[in-house]
């Protein structure tokens, strides 16, 4: 599959089957996150794999956007390990790094026939508290992943994009 086809075909799945992801496929998805570029190659990302019924139940109490996925990745970063911009205080790379990591994992998953949905609809501080994350670890997103339920289709807005002229400006 070429990249543009992969990028155009992939869509957010919001209804999963109960089928569990094979271990070797999950490891490939996690490896895609491992090799993702990060600022200065600091690799501050932390990926938490939630598959236990206890863990999934906690997630269900923290967000309605789990979509019944048998696996949810919580993607976070260690605030003590992300790159700090020496040119301006308060500018650091943690959220960008985790976004790159998540994107790599979503695309690898799709290539393997595994669906996902980027979720930001949750309280990061409550997730950190409920899962006993260290104080320096900040959750950024959740990625429910798994096999799509039957008859799942992309959202109506999936193929709607602004014109390039609306989002690109040459300087």
UniProtKB/TrEMBL annotation:
InterPro entries: Nitroreductase (IPR029479), Nitroreductase-like (IPR000415). One of its GO terms (molecular function) is oxidoreductase activity. Keywords: Flavoprotein, FMN, Oxidoreductase. Its cofactor is FMN. Residues 8-63, 67-147 form the Nitroreductase domain. It comes from the Bacteria. Belongs to the nitroreductase family. This is Nitroreductase. The lineage of its organism: Bacteria, Bacillati, Bacillota, Clostridia, Lachnospirales.
